[in-house]
């Protein structure tokens, strides 16, 4: 078939601009009103986009996508899908699309930066030179800021780097024209010397490092090179100039020679602190002395012992500490005067025997100031526990983890007892449960309530991160009852939650705390400016309950007030720190901030930073500093030391208990999980093998990320086929008898659900595909006369709440839920069977869905059925999930683990056995 015989698909795009150049994009086929599926739109828009793994990393919500402006410019500058045409759904959409296309033309222009000017805000465009419309120029500016942020270049640094960008453009890692890499190498001084050496070297594909002979250093690059590399002299000179052009540590070098310049200690510090991060951002390879990284991590060799000057109360945070300081270097003791001399001489790198030690002058000065401060009696237990103290005097709870003999911090027994008490959150001052609470707290819930009170009393925010189903809601309600019984409380508390669980909050507040007056701030008729101000001044409510969407829309108004408490439920909703929603929530003011979440870290440490920026602003420092200190070394390098350090930093603010904790004594009923294996029908098997063969044929023409990207996009299609061929073929509705004949999985799910209902039991059916849920619903109705509701993300809140309540009241036996809409926030303990129609990439998503039934309040045996088609990707994913299960217990849990598989493993995943 030739290209001329292939029909063009015309899509009408709807583009709604949000904050900071983030667009909400949806599409419908020209002439039709129904929106196309988000996964189909992704496959069209991102079919060749490697940076997003061909759309795998794009956030999808129902039938629309979150797409940044820099993504849009990249997509339209690269050219559209060969068989898809795009127009705007309305005249406004068409104008936006026109401006984006206009901006995209300049975006791919090599002379892009010649139109950029540096100013106080970072950058601006000369529209007269570019002949861009004002809107297209704004899009370019927003996209450039987004790209710079991705590189880790701040707007404050941009003016100094603008000449570099004008000459070389965006960092380009494409070096295929060279059979080696051009790199920089820093070498420490020889014995009795003080100068370091920074030089340009070449690294072969096998990792061998080459530098010019000593006698040829002063000559040109071409003369210094061996014969076989002389043809690349000009390319090496250009790449070297590009790398050195960003440096602040190198004042001058001869550009026609291999760089070979001496650096003193101060220049080395500038290189490490300022130049090296830029090299990493621009992907310029740098070789450092192996010891330098380790020494930089340990920093200082100090031993200190801390104790309390008095011992009044086991939980007092205001007790003053006394410190006993000792110093050592390479195992040799140093007295305080010698330490003082190092500070005064501004020394940075010291050799002791065969070892090198880095002594950061600024850091040493801070330590000296800290010593003077604590010796004057100004430091308390509170300072030690919560302040951002240097790592070397941070509390250590497992001394066996400290494997650096040159750094030691010890605590006297009485202080250690207090610190362990606060670390474990046991034995805190008892707080009477309010008599107005209509519930009996379990022992661990009493501890959670007392901890929330303790954190408020000491003016620290809190993250209550108990496992789903352990009763975070009742602990928070108990706390709010206590707060609003205090005479000094003169303003309402604010609770922000997803729309899907707002009805649940209303019911729980009414059930457990009927004495609290609740005002629901939601909907088109909600209180506005003066009306809201009047309600606040007259104290007409104890609790104001609202949603994330409403709080974002009314963010400016809500930020004008200080609430007694601000609580965010399912706090992962503010994880994307650059979104308007996250910023609006983090600007709210309360006497105490609490975050509730069962998943404090879903995928990225940036999410953790956003939550902590809400509960205790500034504690984890700026996001840039947090990224340098934790995100890069943990997410990129997987460094255990940084993980331990971060756990120690966040642990005092976070209470985390799980259902598997034997100390909780939950007395939950047993849960059995088992796979239900079903074969493909002949039709499915033929389609499966044909589709895999077609995919492998396409793969033969692709390499690298394009090949992996195509395989990843195919996985979703194969999963649809495993469910039902009609889902895979996008067929119109058919009779139920025909539907069950064409899919053994469909037949088994429908028959099992009907049998459960016939036995007087109730079940939940989870599916990730709307079409699958609709077919199951149709089959149950036509074949068994059972009318089954289907909860999806588009269902209005009132209808959703009514269905949940009806199911809990036993009004219908089977409830179908989409995995995204029903996976969190719902209490469906009347179900004692959970059916998963397909396997999801992330086991945590399935577990959250299962926990709608298997949670506190469940009194029945819970049977979880996971449907798996034999010999397909479902069975292979199931096997992989067993192997990957340990990941969820780590500090970071990534739902993108499939992208880490190599090509062989991914191809094996496609093969039908």
Automatic annotation (TrEMBL):
The question of whether Zinc is a record keyword is answered with no
User: What Pfam families does this protein map onto?
Assistant: DUF3670, Helicase_C, SNF2-rel_dom
- The protein in question is named Helicase
InterPro entries associated with the record: DUF3670, Helicase_ATP-bd, Helicase_C-like, P-loop_NTPase, SNF2-like_sf, SNF2/RAD54-like_C, SNF2_N, SNF2_RAD54_helicase_repair
Q: Where is the Helicase ATP-binding domain?
A: 453-618
UniProt entry keywords in alphabetical sequence: ATP-binding, Helicase, Hydrolase, Nucleotide-binding
What is the top-level taxon of the source organism? Bacteria
What the entry lists under SUPFAM superfamilies is as follows:
P-loop containing nucleoside triphosphate hydrolases
Which CDD domains does the protein's record reference? DEXQc_arch_SWI2_SNF2, SF2_C_SNF
The Gene Ontology terms for molecular function here are: helicase activity
UniProt KW Transferase keyword? no
- Which residues belong to any copy of the Helicase C-terminal domain? 748-907
């Amino acid at each position: 078939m030739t290209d001329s015989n292939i029909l063009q698909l015309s899509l009408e795009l709807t583009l709604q601009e949000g904050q900071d150049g983030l667009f909400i994009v949806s599409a419908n086929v020209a002439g039709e009103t129904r929106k196309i599926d988000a996964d189909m739109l992704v496959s069209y828009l991102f079919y060749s986009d490697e940076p997003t793994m061909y759309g795998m990393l794009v956030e999808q919500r129902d039938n629309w996508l979150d797409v940044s402006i820099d993504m849009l410019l990249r997509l339209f500058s690269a050219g559209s899908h060969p068989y898809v045409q795009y127009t705007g759904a309305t005249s406004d959409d068409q104008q936006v699309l026109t401006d984006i296309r206009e901006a995209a033309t300049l975006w791919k222009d090599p002379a892009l930066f010649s139109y950029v000017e540096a100013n106080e805000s970072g950058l601006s465009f000369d529209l007269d030179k570019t002949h861009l419309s004002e809107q297209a120029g704004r899009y370019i500016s927003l996209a450039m800021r987004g790209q710079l942020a991705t590189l880790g270049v701040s707007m404050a640094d941009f003016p100094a780097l603008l000449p570099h960008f004008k000459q070389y453009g965006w960092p380009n890692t494409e070096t295929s024209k060279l059979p080696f890499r051009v790199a920089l190498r820093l070498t420490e001084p020889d014995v009795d010397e003080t100068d370091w050496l920074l030089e340009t070297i070449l690294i072969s594909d096998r990792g061998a490092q080459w530098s010019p002979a000593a006698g040829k250093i002063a000559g040109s690059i071409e003369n210094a090179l061996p014969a076989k590399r002389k043809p690349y002299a000009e390319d090496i000179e250009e790449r070297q100039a590009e790398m050195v052009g960003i440096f602040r540590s190198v004042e001058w070098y001869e550009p026609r020679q291999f760089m070979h310049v001496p650096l003193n200690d101060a220049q080395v510090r500038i290189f490490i602190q300022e130049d090296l991060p830029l090299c990493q951002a621009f992907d310029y390879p740098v070789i450092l002395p192996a010891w330098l990284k380790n020494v930089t991590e340990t920093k200082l060799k100090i031993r200190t012992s801390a104790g309390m000057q008095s011992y009044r109360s086991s939980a007092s945070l205001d007790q003053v500490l006394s410190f006993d300081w000792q110093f050592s270097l390479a195992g040799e003791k140093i007295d305080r005067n010698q330490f003082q001399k190092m500070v005064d001489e501004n020394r940075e790198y010291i050799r002791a025997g065969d070892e090198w030690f880095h002594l950061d002058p600024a850091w040493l000065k801070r330590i000296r100031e800290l010593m003077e401060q604590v010796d004057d009696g100004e430091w308390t237990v509170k300072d030690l526990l919560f302040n951002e103290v240097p790592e070397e005097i941070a509390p250590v709870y497992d001394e066996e983890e400290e494997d650096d003999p040159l750094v030691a911090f010890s605590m006297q027994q009485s202080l250690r007892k207090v610190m362990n008490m606060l670390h474990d959150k046991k034995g805190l001052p008892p707080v009477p449960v309010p008599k107005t609470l209509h519930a009996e707290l379990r022992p661990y819930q009493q501890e959670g309530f007392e901890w929330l009170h303790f954190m408020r009393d000491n003016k620290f925010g809190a993250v209550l991160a108990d496992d789903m189903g352990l009763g975070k809601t009742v602990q928070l309600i108990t706390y709010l009852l206590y707060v609003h019984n205090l005479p000094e409380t003169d303003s309402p508390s604010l609770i922000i939650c997803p729309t899907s669980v707002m009805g649940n909050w209303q019911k729980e507040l009414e059930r457990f705390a009927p004495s609290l007056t609740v005002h629901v701030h939601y909907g088109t008729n909600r209180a506005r400016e003066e009306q809201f101000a009047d309600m606040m001044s007259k104290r007409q409510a104890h609790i104001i309950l609202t949603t994330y969407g409403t709080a974002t829309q009314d963010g400016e108004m809500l930020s004008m007030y200080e609430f007694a408490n601000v609580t965010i439920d399912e706090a992962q909703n503010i994880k994307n720190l650059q979104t308007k929603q996250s910023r609006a929530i983090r600007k709210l003011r309360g006497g105490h901030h609490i975050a509730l979440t069962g998943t404090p870290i879903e995928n990225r440490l940036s999410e953790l930073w956003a939550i902590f920026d809400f509960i205790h602003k500034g504690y984890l420092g700026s996001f840039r500093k947090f990224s340098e200190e934790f995100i890069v070394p943990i997410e990129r390098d997987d460094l255990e030391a940084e993980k331990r350090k971060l756990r120690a930093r966040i642990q005092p603010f976070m209470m985390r208990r799980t259902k598997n904790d034997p100390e909780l004594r939950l007395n939950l009923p047993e849960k059995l999980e088992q796979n239900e294996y079903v074969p493909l029908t002949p039709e499915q098997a033929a389609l499966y093998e044909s589709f895999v063969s077609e995919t492998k044929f396409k793969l033969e023409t692709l390499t690298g990320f394009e090949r992996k990207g195509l395989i990843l996009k195919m996985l979703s299609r194969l999963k649809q086929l495993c469910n039902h061929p009609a889902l895979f073929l996008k067929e119109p509705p058919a009779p139920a008898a025909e539907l069950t004949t064409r899919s053994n999985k469909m037949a088994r799910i429908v028959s099992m659900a009907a049998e459960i209902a016939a036995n007087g039991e109730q079940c939940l059916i989870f599916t990730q595909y709307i079409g699958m849920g609709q077919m199951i619903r149709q089959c149950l109705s036509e074949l068994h006369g059972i009318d089954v509701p289907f909860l999806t993300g588009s269902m209005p809140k009132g209808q959703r709440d009514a269905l949940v309540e009806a199911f809990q009241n036993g009004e219908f036996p089977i409830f179908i839920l989409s995995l995204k809409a029903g996976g969190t926030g719902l209490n469906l303990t009347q179900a004692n069977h959970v059916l998963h129609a397909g396997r999801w990439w992330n086991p945590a998503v399935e577990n959250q869905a299962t926990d709608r039934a298997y949670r506190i309040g469940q009194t029945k045996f819970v049977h979880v059925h996971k449907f798996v088609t034999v010999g397909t990707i479902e069975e292979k994913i199931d096997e992989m999930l067993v192997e990957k299960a340990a990941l969820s217990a780590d500090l970071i849990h990534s739902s993108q683990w499939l992208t880490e598989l190599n090509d062989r493993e991914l191809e094996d995943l496609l093969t039908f056995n």
